[in-house]
Amino acid sequence: MKRITKFKKAVSIFSTLCLTLLVFIACSNNDDDTDDTNTDDTEEVTDILPDVSGYPIEGTNQSTAFNNSTEISNPDSGDDFYGQNANYPGNTPEYVDNEDGTVTDMVSGLMWQQSFDHNGDGEINVDDKLTYDEILEQFGDGGISFGVYDDWRLPTIKEMYSLILFSGRDISPESTSTENLTPFIDNETFEFAYGDLDAGERLIDMQCATTNVYVSNEVEETVFGVNFADGRIKGYGISMPFGGMDKAFNYLLVLGNTSYGLNNFVDNGNGTITDEATGLMWMQDDNGEGVLWQDALAYAEGKEFAGYSDWRLPDAKELQSIVDYTRSPATTNSAAIDPLFNCSQITNEADELDYPWYYTSTTHANSSNTSGGAAVYVAFGRSLGNMDGWIDIHGAGSQRSDPKTGNPEDYADGFGPQGDAIRIYNYVRLVRNIN
Fold this sequence. Notes:
This protein is an alpha+beta fold. The chain has helices at 9-28, 30-33, 132-139, 157-161, 293-301, 316-320, 329-332; strands at 2-5, 65-66, 71-72, 94-97, 102-105, 111-113, 130-131, 144-146, 149-152, 207-213, 222-227, 232-237, 248-249, 254-255, 265-267, 272-275, 280-283, 346-347, 353-354, 357-363, 374-379, 385-386, 390-391, 399-403, 431-433. The two termini are 22 Å apart.
């Protein structure tokens, strides 16, 4: 991952000389130009953003390789576990600290607020958070002023997810110490903090709201958010599950590249779909059955289809890029994906007709002795939890993780505080780079 501070010493000296010359010229012409001088010191955003358009997928920053439980040396082609995220790192994340409270992402072409300290008191805590209604009231219409720019907006889920880094390590909901924790965001560039224990929050309470509300009539209103503390996308209820209070969210505002997150799918007529926005080609069909993560890697590496032999298992960001958040099993009677794609149908834990979860090449690492025991999946069907009965608690389009091995029957009643369904055997959709 590359981090750049804009004003290096040599550049600063050169800039000082140039500024002195400009001041001299300006002063010598002052009498002629006084009436025409533009006193508006608002900087044009196009002056600082990279020339990026479309939907370039940022790499996950996962350079560590894993087997079914622990870290391993990067496997070579033909080895077990070859084809995982560390073998195909994608576009290296590159951030520029603009030294004005903003950060430019050189891959996505987006500019971000740098700090979660929204009230400017020098601390990141519960006082920096807002309810979702308050966020929409303040930022829902865009055109927000911050620093020298006046066109900030609340991000979409795909824009927000561009910042997630799977060099982070998952934490337990019961964790009470931040010692040796690694968040799922570049905390050397962005100012980040875990949840506010002093205010009764958990350390994992760093859910960042987006514009995307889950399109389902089966659950209470939920908003999709990215949690940079535990590395997940979930649909979060806008009110607390107990007590009826409105939930408080954090957020970061964004500007630039308004085409980011917009797909441009082309049906190639040969069982493949090209996304011209991302430069990725996808298989139109999935593999048709649930498999273990290791078997998903092997299936991808050995696949020849439509004249290509360089198919691979997509990483987390690549697979999330083809989610269609306007669709869901409840409202469109389909998977959360463009209808150009074909999705297998399954019967879920609630005995409903549904659509699968799909494995990625990305490991959802943690800090335990079995740091590599879970793999990231994206749910294109309902994302169920057992809360006195199975419900679509996280939403189609959520990103979570499953154990790489084991028996799903051991989790027949769900797992964790929300009774999350655990399947272990998940489906596969392959991808390749166009160029």
